[in-house]
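User: quick one
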Amino acid sequence: MMFLSFVKKEFLHIFRDPRTMLITLGMPVAQIILFGFAITTEVKNVRMAVFDPSHDISTQRIISRMQASEYFDMTQVLHTADDINSAFNKGKAELVAVFSDRFDENLLRAGKASVQLIADATDPNQAAMLTAYASNIIADYRQELLREHRIPFLIEPEIQMLYNPQMKSAYNFVPGVMGLILTLICAMMTSIAIVREKEVGTMEALLVSPLRPVWIILAKVAPYFTLSIVNIISILLLSVFVLDVPVSGSMFWLAVVALMFIIVALLLGIVISSVATTQVTAMLASGMLLMMPVLLLSGMIFPIENMPVILQWISNIIPARWFITAVRKVMIEGLGVSYVAKELAILAGMAVFLIAVSVKTFKIRLS
Amino acid sequence: MKKAIEVENLTKRFGSFTAVNAISFDVAQGEIFGFLGANGAGKTTAMRMLCGLSRPTSGKGAVAGFDMIRQPEEIKRHIGYMSQRFSLYEDLAVWENIRLFAGIYGVPEKEIAPRTDGMLARIGFESGRNTRVKELPLGWKQKLSFAVAIFHEPKIVFLDEPTGGVDPLTRRRFWEMIYDAADRGISVFVTTHYMDEAEYCNRVSIMVDGRIDALDTPKNLKQQFGVRSMDEVFHRLARENALTSNAN
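Assistant: Done. Structure below.
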């Protein structure tokens, strides 16, 4: 009875604050839609460079076709193979076409020549589109040669993705958005809600009341726990029915992974709330210490394997990193529970550690 | 008659610092007990111990008939508390706040509605039942906080500087509510900075440096120090203390 009337009051706080409602329920939908649609638009005028050591009639004709297309802007002609890297590093090219030596000669004599298409795959969607466009142009040229010579030539476009070799693409962001939203709701919103009571002074009245401190915390956490589950379900529904990203693994283990992460994130929120004394501090702490790392270091946007070693190390202590990896395995790759045992164990270890920390900080506060 | 508070040699130390130094006093049922002292004199620490929030280092006592050391949870159930910072939730309506705290203090479900009606009628606030607390003026918030603090009919209610920031007239109205509660047998333990409020108390204690240096009715205290107001009593004690600490 005591506990329930408190939980009810906590829900009222959320329902009566339009901003909280918007963040907790509107944000997941907005993010899924944003990541799902806004990012996969048509590409035009992409900066392109060529490295053409053979410099013959065939390569020239392919290059001029690419130049003529609206997709590519030929920005540079490279003279050595080393220039390829520097063109990427300086941002002068997003796509480089590398023709093999004696291209035309090989094509006519051996009936076979190769061209390498190297793309900056930091944005995997765009990289996939670029190489597909370029391959099409090359295929067109092959058709033309076929008509002219009536010999079955073969031009092999060999595609290489820089910076994101596995081409983990569109499916990537669904686990990422889940990690982000859960961190936002569980850690940030919870810590702010608890600190608000400290700041306003109502926490004093609660501590004097017969409610045990543990129940106060549980009651504050309960609505955010519920909201997190609602959000997981809505994200999954959106991804299955709107984005066509199916749940290929076990629904049960996906739920276990999600629950585990929700618990860790809630504990993080509780620990932050016991340290912070103002809502602003709580927001900054969870924003800088949790949200930013989730965005930048969890592998949601930038693949972990391509980070500098130090950042890879740091990413290990970010709970969302393990959650996102586990969701990817279970949901996208459809792997069994044995493949996520490590991630689950790490999250469980983090939960135990955080429980110890929050119990300790709580005792200090009460003595 | 049973005492609402009885403490003997209550002491709280933090490391080598003694915040409360062996204080002893009692509060009778229905008594209004003023608890005065400068900032840092140990009032808050003493009050936290009495409310069951902090364990005494030594000494013993009972609040609302329960032992301070062994039954702090029982104490919490039988006291009321209101602080200078409001204990009410601004985004909840008046009745929702009442319901919430009634629930927390275990008031039986079917009694909540009739008691709410009675309480609002008594303070003349029937029309404000559905108003959100944030829309109320400060004076009303304080009156309502007090009414909520005694809603579960505790044996004693602790008021920590309850009337901060309001004018003397509003304070006076607030004190009418306090007298009303005391008449119904609820003891009132009140800390304050305002010496006009000290005059309203049945008895007043003044804490200096962790000790209770004076404890009597306002009338006797004024006689004892040969002054005409509680304000002067307070300053006498504070000055004496400043002199002794200078001598040290």
